[in-house]
Each structure stands twice: as structure tokens, then as C-alpha cells.
Design a protein that fits this description.
Helices cover 57% and strands 9% of the residues. It contains 20 helices and 12 strands. It is elongated, with a radius of gyration of 35 Å. Bound molecules: adenosine-5'-triphosphate (ATP).
Length: 648
């Protein structure tokens, strides 16, 4: 989708008569339809102009003096043009009409001087305006991005990524139009109107009155368009988001698309959104064009009125040709700012549609926040690693059912606790609570006996390493991927971690070794190799608590075996919680917790649970044949009655 320049020129152009500017294409590519809006995940709350400005104006702090300076430049430029027109009138009457060359030089020099001064001020003002506008965009985007990063996982599950991306790009630009460029344009247009109207009145107040009597027609034309433009813009913003989402999802799922021959479905999805967007876009273009043409006719009406009146006045000897031309020039200069003011209404209207969408993000509350200083419990920066959940109840925000019910467990350093159970039992939710992505509705989660909501978030998360199901990869070098999350890491530290994770050999074989750039979805590394990069990252992080969420998912037998050694080394001496369906990993856990529909239904060692013949035994016996081995390192594992399924 195309984008219009962020900062529209706030200053009048030099020259005797500006041509009418088309209304800014503020929709920067237009709209869409109701179906698409319904598809939009976040329900947009209606926000008015005042609230938009009130919420976003504080972001101009630090740049307000520059905005004032831009407005001053605009005033000086308008003044320069006023003087230039008056000099032009003098030249017409004294030099041209009388054919006097001597009457030419002084006014010509003055005109040139004024034009140069106006040009310099115009250049400075426009450059400064662009700089200020871009700084605002940067600041706003950073603010929204920072806020997004605090939002809980369910926010991202419920909102399409592409739409969020669109909000951070297109909608951010729209707000800038409202807050910075809009303000500068308003000041420019207002002072333009004051100077040119003042000069026209000064020349001939009676003719000026007649001409200005037509001005309200411009306002009426603008007002008639405002409502529709807002509706169209709102849909346009959502359409932009929907298209970005479809494209983004299409790229992420390209393998699925090809494997399942879904190319035509994907193309149809994009076509559907694009059709909606096209219709809205055309509607918007039509509205803008209609507005433009109506204004054009109104302007012609005014110019004809001036020429008619001027001819009358000149024939009666009450006016010179120079005065008439100057008057016509002032009126010609006057209409663009009047129209700009009207157009500004449309721009503002369109921009508030964007601000509604951004405020949806900014008003979304993080599920957890840092505790108030008064309740923070002072604890050593590195925890010992004792983890405890005490009678925890939890329901996802907006969810209807409790996902965890009266759940308790504890684990101490050196201990390996495996959490298993059927799909949807709440295992990963427990990891989310331990990392404090959410707070339980009742009960507490503790680290070294301290409720996690009384520890600074950064401190808590520094002490827990999560290895999620899918290895998270940064678009960066292998070295940076391993060092991620740790400051002051040397190359030697990274190499040692890679060695401990059995990753050294394949990293050395990469084209640029540790400097090889990898990216999410990379094909340079296999799933098992990526997992070992993640293990190296966890080694380096060296947190006392380790949570492994399905560490062997997606890996074949050989790849699984290759990560077991590194996992053992990683788990040694830490509190390790393994969430898994792979009961080979459970075989030598110190304790296995079996969750079912949010409840802890069984707890014990592998042998005890098999003997119990409950859910664990059922899961174990329906589990595919053994392939792996176990993670635990110490104490040495006793063979289990059912036969040793470990590869050691
Ligand atoms: N963001 C969310 N909002 C609402 N419900 C959710 C959310 N995330 C998970 N759930 C629900 O919570 C329940 C537990 O999910 P969880 O992912 O913890 O299960 P799990 O035991 O880890 O499953 P699996 O083994 O399939 O990964 C499920 O019913 C799931 O649909």
C-alpha cells in the first residue's frame, strides 16, 4: 500500500498565483468494507478529535519550540508573498502601464529580495516541519511498540499480527497528520487567510466583502463530506491491516499452503480482502475528487465575480489595473488556505480513525505489572531456585472455564519435575504463571518462598529460563542468538556454551561460523540444531530454574538423542520442570505430575504411577515405542519395573 509523505508542506509556494492543490490523499490508499471490519480482531472504540489530540499531544514534548518556529516561518513566508503582490501592483501601474524603466528597478529589487527571503524561510520551515513530524512518528511508534511488548500472550493470540503491524505503520503516520502536520497546516492556512484577506480589504474593502461573502460555500462543501470520509477512512485503516495480515500469514504458512495445495484458497483470501479494499479505495478517491471539483467551480465563481466588478470599477475610474491584478492575486492566494482549512477537517477526520486504532493498543492493559516499591521483597539477584505453586486457580482473561483448579506443587534445585497430561490440561499455562505472564486468580506462585508478584518482573524472569516448544530465533548472527538476553558476554562464553550444547561442530561448519546470520523460519539449521542453539542460549543465561516446554516435539529419534546430552548438562543442579507428552522423558524424573482438565490428578515417580494404573499408566501404554532416554543427570537413575526405557 502506498504512503503519502508524512509532512505535507505547510508553507505557501512562491509565485504570483498558486494553483489549487488537490485535497491530500490522506487515506493513503483507501478503504474497505463492512465484512472486513467484522473480521478485524480489535473492536474499535469511537474516539473524537479532542480525545485524540489530548492523548497524543504530550508526545510533542521537546519539539514544541520547533513547531512554533515552523509556524513562524509560515507566517514570514505568507508576509513575503503579501509584500510581493503589492510590489507587483506597483510595478504594473508605474512601470508597465506608464512604460517607465526607471520605475522598474527599485520595486524589482525589493521583489527579488522578498522572494529570496521568502524562499530561504520556506526552505527552512519545510525542512524543520519534516524533521519534527518524523521525530513525532518515531516517538509514537516507539511508545506503541514498547506498550505492545508488555501485553500478555492472549492479546497476540486474539489479534492478527498483520493488523498490529499496520497499526504501527499506517496508523502512526495518520496520527502525525493530526498532531504535527495538521497543526502546522492550520497555522499556515490561518495566517495566510489573515494576511491575504487583510491586504485585499486594504486595497478595496467593498470588493473584498462581496468576494468573501462566497467563502462560507467552501465550508458548507467541506462539512458535507466529513462524515462519509471518516467512515471510509475507518474502513480503510482496517482494510490495510487485513491485507497485511493475509500477506503475512500467507508467508508464514507457505509450507502448509504448498503441501496442502492451498494456493488458490490463499489467493482467494487475498483477493477477497483486496476487493473490499479496492471498493473502499475507489469510494474514497471519488469523494475526494467530487470535493475537488465542487471547490474548483466555487473558485471560478469567485474569480468571475472579481473580474466583473473590476471591469466595472476600472471603467468608472475608481481602480487601476495594477490594483485589480493585485486584488485578484490576493483572492487567488486566499482560496487555497481557506480550502486547506476545510480540507484539514477531512484530514483530521481521517486521522482520528487511525487514532482510534492506536488507542485500542495503548489502552490494552498488561496482564501483570511490576509490583509497587512498597510491596517488593528484597531478594538476592540470583535465586536459589525453589519453585512452589500453592492452591492455584486460574482462568484466562475473557475465558469461561478455569484452566487450573486448586493446583499445588513444589520443586527444589537439582530436582527434575515432569508435568504431563492430555492436551489442553493446562501444562503450558502453568509455565505462563511461573514466568508471571499472568497472575493466578487465587493461590500463589513462589520463588524461594517469595510470591512472584512481589519480585520485580525483570528479576523474576532473569531467574527462569524458558525453552518453549518452538525455538525462538532472532534475525541476527548465531553468536547474538546465543548471547541473547545477557549483557557483557564474550565470544569465549558463547563458544563454551555452544560446546556444552553440542552445537560447536555444526556452527563451525556454517559459512560464517558464529557470524552466520539466521532468521526465524531459517532453513540453515535443522530443528534439532536450532534446539541446541536454544540450549546454548539457556546455558549462557544460567538461570537457576529451567522450564522445558515439549523439548523433543518435532524431533526424530536421532535428533532427540542428540539433544538429550546437552539437556542433561543444562538441567544439572537447576530446578528443572519439563512439560511433555513424551513419557520417555518422564521415566527418570524425580516426580511426575499428571494434570487433567486443570487438576493435578496423579503425582509420583514413573514406577509409582505405573503401579497406580491410573491416567499416567494409560498415557504411557498408549505412548509410541521408546526412542529417547531421559534428561536427568543425578542422582543415578534406578531401573524401573516396567523395563528401562532410557538410553544412557
Ligand atoms: N490465551 C488463552 N485464552 C483462553 N484460553 C486459553 C488461552 N491459552 C490457552 N487456553 C486454554 O487453556 C487450556 C489449557 O491450555 P494449555 O496450553 O495450558 O494446555 P496444555 O496442557 O499445555 O496443552 P498441550 O499439551 O496441547 O500443549 C486449553 O483449554 C486452552 O484452550
Amino acid at each position: 500500500m502506498s504512503r503519502e509523505p508524512v509532512a505535507a508542506s505547510p508553507l505557501p509556494a512562491a509565485g504570483p498565483r498558486r494553483t489549487a492543490q488537490p485535497p491530500p490523499d490522506t487515506g493513503r490508499d483507501r478503504v474497505l468494507r463492512a465484512g472486513l471490519v467484522a473480521d478485524a480482531p480489535i473492536r474499535t472504540r469511537r474516539v473524537g478529535f479532542k480525545e485524540s489530540v489530548r492523548r497524543f499531544w504530550p508526545l510533542t514534548r521537546g519539539d514544541r519550540r520547533w513547531i512554533v518556529l515552523v509556524c513562524l516561518c509560515a507566517i514570514v513566508a505568507a508576509l513575503a508573498e503579501t509584500v510581493a503582490i503589492l510590489v507587483f501592483a506597483e510595478l504594473t501601474d508605474n512601470a508597465l502601464q506608464k512604460g517607465s524603466v526607471s520605475a522598474f528597478w527599485a520595486p524589482a529589487a525589493l521583489w527579488l529580495g522578498v522572494a529570496v527571503a521568502g524562499g530561504v524561510v520556506g526552505y527552512l520551515g519545510n525542512s524543520l516541519a519534516a524533521w519534527t513530524a518524523e521525530r513525532f512518528v518515531m516517538r509514537l511508534r516507539a511508545r506503541v511498540f514498547a506498550h505492545l511488548q508488555k501485553l500478555p500472550p492472549h492479546f497476540f493470540q486474539r489479534n492478527r499480527r498483520g493488523d498490529l503491524v499496520e497499526r504501527l505503520t499506517g496508523d502512526v503516520d495518520a496520527i502525525e497528520q493530526l498532531v504535527v502536520t495538521g497543526l502546522v497546516q492550520a497555522a499556515t492556512a490561518t495566517f495566510g487567510v489573515i494576511f491575504y484577506a487583510g491586504a485585499a480589504f486594504w486595497l478595496r474593502w467593498d470588493m473584498a466583502l462581496v468576494t468573501f461573502a462566497l467563502a462560507p460555500l467552501f465550508w458548507i462543501a467541506t462539512r458535507r463530506f466529513t462524515g462519509r470520509v471518516k467512515e471510509v477512512s475507518r474502513r480503510e485503516r482496517a482494510a490495510d491491516g487485513a491485507i497485511t495480515s493475509v500477506v503475512e500469514e500467507g508467508l508464514v504458512n507457505v509450507v502448509l499452503t504448498q503441501a496442502y495445495n492451498r494456493q488458490r484458497d490463499e489467493q482467494e483470501r487475498l483477493r477477497r480482502e483486496a476487493r473490499s479494499w479496492l471498493r473502499a479505495s475507489v469510494t474514497s478517491a471519488r469523494l475526494n475528487e467530487l470535493y475537488e471539483q465542487i471547490v474548483e467551480v466555487l473558485e471560478t465563481l469567485c474569480v468571475l465575480a472579481i473580474i466583473g466588478l473590476g471591469a466595472w470599477e476600472i471603467s468608472a475610474g475608481r481602480m487601476t489595473l495594477g490594483q485589480l491584478l493585485a486584488f485578484a492575486a490576493f483572492v487567488g492566494y486566499l482560496y487555497p488556505p481557506i480550502r486547506d482549512l476545510g480540507q484539514l477537517g477531512l484530514t483530521v477526520t481521517e486521522a482520528t480513525a487511525g487514532s482510534e486504532r492506536l488507542l485500542e493498543i495503548l489502552d490494552a492493559r498488561p496482564a501483570v505489572t511490576d509490583p509497587e516499591p512498597a510491596v517488593v521483597v528484597r531478594a538476592p539477584s540470583r535465586a536459589v531456585g525453589a519453585v512452589e505453586a500453592c492452591r492455584v486457580h486460574f482462568r484466562y482473561p475473557g475465558g469461561t472455564e478455569e484452566v487450573l483448579k486448586d493446583f499445588s506443587f513444589s520443586a527444589v534445585p537439582g530436582e527434575l519435575v515432569v508435568i504431563t497430561g492430555p492436551s489442553g490440561a493446562g501444562k503450558s499455562t502453568l509455565a505462563a504463571l511461573l514466568l508471571r505472564f499472568y497472575d493466578p486468580d487465587a493461590g500463589s506462585i513462589r520463588l524461594d518462598g517469595i510470591p512472584v508478584n512481589r519480585l520485580p518482573l525483570a528479576q523474576l524472569r532473569r531467574n527462569i529460563t524458558l525453552l518453549p516448544q518452538e525455538t525462538l530465533v532472532l534475525h541476527d548472527t548465531v553468536e547474538e542468538n546465543i548471547a541473547c538476553g545477557r549483557d557483557n558476554v564474550t565470544h569465549g562464553d558463547v563458544v563454551r556454551a555452544a560446546r556444552a550444547a553440542d552445537a560447536e561442530v555444526f556452527i563451525a561448519a556454517l559459512p560464517d561460523g558464529y557470524d552466520t546470520v539466521i532468521a526465524p523460519g531459517t532453513s540453515r539449521l535443522s530443528g534439532g540444531q536450532l534446539q541446541r542453539v536454544a540450549i546454548a542460549r539457556a546455558m549462557l543465561r544460567d538461570a537457576p530454574v529451567l522450564i522445558l516446554d515439549e523439548p523433543t516435539t518435532g524431533l526424530d529419534t536421532l535428533a532427540t538423542q542428540r539433544i538429550l546430552g546437552p539437556l542433561r548438562r543444562l538441567a544439572a543442579g537447576r530446578t528443572t520442570i519439563v512439560i511433555t507428552h513424551d513419557l520417555d522423558l518422564a521415566a527418570d524424573a524425580d516426580r511426575i505430575l499428571v494434570l487433567d482438565r486443570g487438576r493435578l490428578v496423579e503425582s509420583g515417580t514413573h514406577a509409582q504411577l505405573l503401579a497406580h494404573r491410573g491416567l499416567y499408566a494409560t498415557l504411557f501404554h498408549t505412548h509410541p515405542p521408546s526412542h529417547n532416554g531421559a534428561v536427568h543427570t543425578s542422582p543415578p537413575v534406578r531401573p524401573v519395573a516396567d523395563g528401562d526405557r532410557r538410553l544412557r
